[in-house]
Amino acid sequence: MPNILIIDDDTHISGMLTEALRGQGYSVSCAYSGTEALLILPKARPDLILLDLMLPGLTGEELLPQIKDTPVIVVSAKADVSHKVELLLGGAADYITKPFDMGELLARIEVQLRKKSEVSDRLSVGALTLYADKLTVTVGDTEVRLTRTECAILKLLMQNPRTPVGKTTILEKISYDTPDCTERSLKQHISNIRHKLQAVDGVDYIEAVYGIGFKMRS
Which part of the chain has CATH 1.10.10.10? Predict the structure, then answer.
């Protein structure tokens, strides 16, 4: 599930947003100052950030340039158009003014996450986060190295977490990235992935579906 980081010193707003976002199936973490946000960003690895501007410590304007490769929706009471334009040109993905309609904010979040999923090599399912460009997957906080073939297979399974993916489909879909994978070797590649992930926390994340192929274990 996508992880959203709320950076806002107003505990009422943070609580309201947390409840609404979790109700939509998102994972949520919070920071209550710009300084705290900067400290937890590397560990939180959010898929999207909701950023207030008037923060203790580092302000939102000071924090924004330090956020890389993560879409930021500014949620602020500042309504000046020139200020909005400056922040959008400075790296914010979107800007919504307080007070806001929750339905509109949720829609804007969905749009930004959809855009990110279309271009990003980062993919999260449960405790797993795949970084396809780095050929790594994290299990919780533990990084696991993958071969190119293993990465391509796991990426396809994680893109379809609730649906069994057939062996022929896997071979067809990953053929561009890994032309060396064959039907004979596919089973061994799957076994290698399962053992690498299971070695971290004892959980078997992939299951065979008899007569079809493989899927992420729910």
Answer: 122-216
Residues 191 and 133: beta-carbon distance below 8 Å: no
pLDDT recorded at residue 120 = 60
- Is 90 exceeded by the pLDDT of residue 114? no
What distance in Å separates the CA atoms of residue 114 and residue 120, rounded to the nearest whole number? 10
Q: Where in the chain is the domain with CATH 3.40.50.2300?
A: 3-119
198: buried, middle or exposed (CB in 10 Å: 19+, 13-18, 0-12)? Answer: middle
List the structure tokens of 40: 């937890």
The position carrying tokens 């271009």 is 119
3-class secondary structure, 32: coil
Domain at 122-216, CATH from 3.40.1080.10, 3.30.1330.30, 1.10.10.10, 3.40.630.30 = 1.10.10.10
Give me the helix-helix angle, 167-174 and 183-201, nearest 10°.
Answer: 90
Q: Is 30 helix (H, G, I), strand (E, B) or coil?
A: strand
Query: How confident is the model over 16-45, as a mean pLDDT?
Result: 91
pLDDT digits over 145-162, tens only? 999 899 999 999 998 888
pLDDT at residue number 41: 87
Pairing label, strands 128-131, 136-139? antiparallel
Write out the DSSP string of 114-170. HHHHHH-SEEEETTEEEEGGGTEEEETTEEEE--HHHHHHHHHHHHSTTS-EEHHHH
pTM: 0.58
- The β-bridge relationship of strands 94-97 and 122-125 is unpaired
